[in-house]
Each structure stands twice: as C-alpha cells, then as structure tokens.
Amino acid sequence: MGHLRTGEIVAELDAPADYTDQLSAPGSARTSLILDAVPGDVDIRAVTAPWRHYLAIADTDRVLWAGPVISRTRRPGADELEVTCAGLWAVFDHRILARYGDWGFTDPRADLVLTYRSLPGVALDIVRAAVDRPHGELPLLLPRLDSSGDEDRTFYGHELATAGERLGQLTRAEAGPDLHFLPRYRADRSGIEWVLRVGNPTLAQGGQLWHFDHGRQLVAYGWDEDGSVMADAVTVPGDGVERGRLIGRASQDALPRAGWPALDAVITSHSSEKRPAVLAAHARGYLDVLRTGVTRDSATVRTDTDPRLGRYLVGDQVVLTPRPDRLTPAGQRRRRVTAITYRGSSPQTAELTLAPVPATS
C-alpha cells in the first residue's frame, strides 16, 4: 500500500490479490486483508483510505499492477477487509479537463487549445493539463516524443468533460493512440511511479513476439464473436440542435453487397464536438471496428514458464498455437493483448484477452 500523490510505500502486506490490466482503460483489482494477518503496527483503516492510498501488486522485483483504492467493505461478522481498486486512469475520470486559474470554467482562459499536434501529442497535453492544477501532482512520468502534427483540438472548460473521457474518445478515434499507465518501482524502491505509454498509434513490444503453445504455455483457448454492435454505417452527431446539428458519417457497403442487411450505429459520445472533420474521423474510426463486429480471443496461460507474468504487457503481440478441433483450425494465429487478468486463487495461470493485430502493425 502507498500514498497516491507521492508514490511512497507505507505498508507491505502479504495477501492474495486479483487484478485486470487493460489497454486504454482503467482496469481493476481487489484483495481481502485478513485482520489477524496484518502486522499490529499497521493502521489498516489509514493505509486503505479510498483515493488517498494505492494498492500495488508485486512479484519479486516487478510491479505487476497498481492503482488507487476506490472502496472497501467489512461484511457483518467477517474478520477481513475487502479492498477494491482501479487503475491510475480512474484519477483522470475524476478530473475536469480545463486550465485552472482565477477564473471559472466558462471563461475562455479555461479552454485547452491545441494546435499542430499529433494525436499522441494531444493525449500528452490532456494528461499534462489534468495534473497541472492545484493538488494535481502524481508520481507520473511522461514520455518524450515529437508531439507535432496536423491536429487541432479545443477542449472547452464549460463542457465540464473529464480528462479520462477525452482520453477515451481520443483512443477510439481514427488512428487514435493506445494508452497505458505502467507502474514500476522507483530506483530507491521507497515507492512506485507510473510511466505513461503512448502508442503511435499502437503499443507493442520491440523485438521478439511472445509465443504460447498448446501443451506448454497455453492451457486453454477460446473466442467470442459479438455481432450486436455490427454496422456498415456509423453516424456521430456533434454540437448543435435540430437542423443546425453537425453530423459525421462513414459507411462501407461490402457487407450489404455480400448479403447482410443494412445496419446503422449512432455514437452519441461526441455531442460537444464543433468540427465536422473531427466528427467524420471519429465515424471512420468506429466503422473500422464495428463493420465486422467485435471478436475477442481469450487464452489461459501459465505464469510459471517463460514468458512469465510481468514480461508481456497490454498492447504486446503474441503468437498462439492452440489445439485444433472442429471450431479451431490448426495453425498459429497472431494477436495483441488488450487485457491481462490474474487471480490470487489460481496463481499458476493468467487469462489474456486478445484482439486482431491492426493492419498498420
């Protein structure tokens, strides 16, 4: 456990924990602290205070996951405390995106105006603005990258949108960057810090791919195809009302020409956007995902063989060789990791959520 604003470690506890690390999303974790197992000199209520403290899950010299405590529960008659946490992204879900000063949110000085930026550069500027405010500091390291480009963005203070909301919209835009807050020990090991990983547009490891083969690292393999979100045309409404409303739209007729019925999707999460070009880009980005539905592979892998848990990260690419059967053709398939789930009750395995590798990778 540690102090969120400084990263300082305040207590080291031995307790099983579950976590899910997600790409471009907060993730989550939970643990149960048995009261008699916590050293007597540790003030349990103090070190688990929601938002003030974080939970870090570590394996030897590596931090696997870390994020702020969100809630805690002691059930009637129980001699344990259940602690639920979220990833660092959750902090940005609770910060209004604006420039702070001696003015209100409706003042033009509260607007975050960005010009000639790349989409990764826009993400960096959103994060900087979210920490550059009273009591906004976090033990967060930002990458050095060329943030110049052709993008212009204005985030109006009066919209009262959160930084997390805007980051999520950015990752879902056409060619939007992957984002991930990666925790690690500080050099002196007195605390932890997070490193913001920004894709351009995707995140992936450098060098070799991670291999998971049936009968060795790969324990089980499955997949889930969700057609409920399929669409051959995507409409994204923006700012304005009635006949003056701005609307972005993108379509692709390959499915209808092959026999599918016409399917529309309307994305309403950009209602404050004032630029038609940005709305159109959002529509193209959503269409790229939705025109074939959402297919996610899942794999259960061993944690006691290479590659070990903590070596591969969300965003990394893996090669799977599952056992073939009537639903699973023989051969390898290349995927990228979008989530890693670990449960303390079954420490020998972890579950990977996987997605197709983008064509640009």
Question: Which value, in Å, is the CA radius of gyration?
Answer: 22 Å
Largest sheet: 12 strands, mixed
Weakly predicted, low-confidence segments? none
Count of helices?
Answer: 6
Proportion in β-strands: 25-35%
What portion of residues is helical?
A: 10-25%
Distance between the termini: 37 Å
Number of strands: 20
Quick check: average pLDDT? 94
Q: Give the overall shape.
A: globular
Question: Topology, please?
Answer:
Elements: E1 2-3, E2 17-22, E3 28-34, H1 44-47, E4 53-59, E5 62-73, E6 80-86, H2 89-92, E7 112-117, H3 119-131, E8 140-141, E9 151-155, H4 163-172, E10 179-185, E11 192-198, E12 210-213, E13 218-226, E14 233-237, E15 247-251, H5 254-257, E16 264-266, H6 276-290, E17 294-302, E18 317-321, E19 333-342, E20 349-356
Parallel strand pairs: 8-11, 12-18, 14-16
Antiparallel strand pairs: 1-4, 2-3, 2-19, 3-6, 4-5, 5-6, 7-9, 10-11, 13-17, 14-15, 17-20, 18-19, 19-20
Helix pairs in contact: 3-4
Keywords:
361 residues; single chain; 6 helices; globular; mainly beta
What would you say this structure looks like, in words?
Strand 4 and strand 5 form a beta hairpin. Strands 1, 2, 3, 4, 5, 6, 12, 13, 17, 18, 19 and 20 form a 12-stranded mixed β-sheet that branches. This protein has helices at residues 44-47, 89-92, 119-131, 163-172, 254-257, 276-290; strands at residues 2-3, 17-22, 28-34, 53-59, 62-73, 80-86, 112-117, 140-141, 151-155, 179-185, 192-198, 210-213, 218-226, 233-237, 247-251, 264-266, 294-302, 317-321, 333-342, 349-356. The protein contains 6 helices and 20 strands. The model has no long low-confidence stretch (mean pLDDT 94). Helix 3 runs antiparallel to helix 4. The longest helix is centred in the last third of the chain and has 15 residues, at 276-290. The two termini are 37 Å apart. It has 361 residues and is mainly beta. The protein is globular and about 65 Å long. 14% of the residues lie in helices and 35% in strands. Among the domains are: 2-88, no CATH class; 210-226 and 294-356, Phage tail proteins - horseshoe like beta roll fold, CATH 2.30.300; 233-290.
